[in-house]
Amino acid sequence: MKKQIVFIRGGETFANKADFYEYISTVSLDPYKQKKSWRDWIIEVLKDEYDFLSPVMPSKQDADYKAWKIWFERHFDFIKNEDLILIGSSLGATFLLKYLSENNFPKKILQLHLVVPAVFNDGLTLEKLNTFEFDIKKINKISEMCDEIYLWASKDDPLVSFENSEMVKENLPNVKFNVFENRGHFFVETFPEILEIIKKVK
Asked: Does residue 8 come out as left (phi exceeding 0), alpha (psi in the -120 to 50 range) or beta?
């Protein structure tokens, strides 16, 4: 049986419909531009060794935590391995922080990777955490669920300020904090550093 990785990608969430409508009216749009992402790259690189569960979360452009929670839990029946890797990117990382700090998880987590999570609203533009807000002081509970926790952030992130990750580090002391100077919001084609750590799993 292949090892498993559960991967929760990002999305957008807003305090109200007016902000959501303004966002989709003004966000940069080029339907012909195909963005290459490390999220697809890592699946391609590891597909022979790992079974990937990467659920398309409901209404990801106007995300609601309750809907994401329901959909996430419906995938538990497909997690066959006793030990697995969890990866959350952007709002996906925020979701995992909230979910794991408020709920139990059915399997042992060998590695948890949190890539640029947002944990407070300061610095965000039209987007607000809204239903994804949680008590940051409770995330230390997550340490008991995971063998290893990795936090990834860049000081020049234009979407989620670096202070968000600093707050995660402050409240989750055993996290391994990986800091970059120029990765932005990790809109990059490859991510060799996270791949190297995943490959160390026995």
From this structure: beta
Check whether 124 has a pLDDT greater than 80.
no
Residues spanned by the domain of 169 = 3-198
Taken in order 5, 11, 15, 17, the sign of the CA dihedral is negative
* Cα distance between residue 147 and residue 83, in whole Å: 10
Output phi, psi for 153, to 5 deg. -155, 160
Tally of structural domains, the chain: 1
Tokens read off for 40: 């697809």
Q: How far apart are CA 130 and CA 13, in angstroms?
A: 7
Residue 29 half-sphere exposure toward CB, CA atoms < 13 A: 6
Residue closest to 93 by CA, chosen among 139, 62, 29, 138? 139
Distance in angstroms (rounded) separating the CA atoms of residues 116 and 160: 7
Q: Is the pLDDT higher at 32 or at 85? A: 85
- 85 and 6 in contact (C-beta within 8 Å)? yes
11-30 pLDDT, tens digit each: 999 999 999 999 999 988 88
pTM more than 0.85: yes
In which element (H, E) is residue 166 found? Answer: helix 162-171
CATH number for the domain that contains residue 42: 3.40.50.1820
As a whole number of angstroms, the distance between CA 33 and CA 36 comes to 10
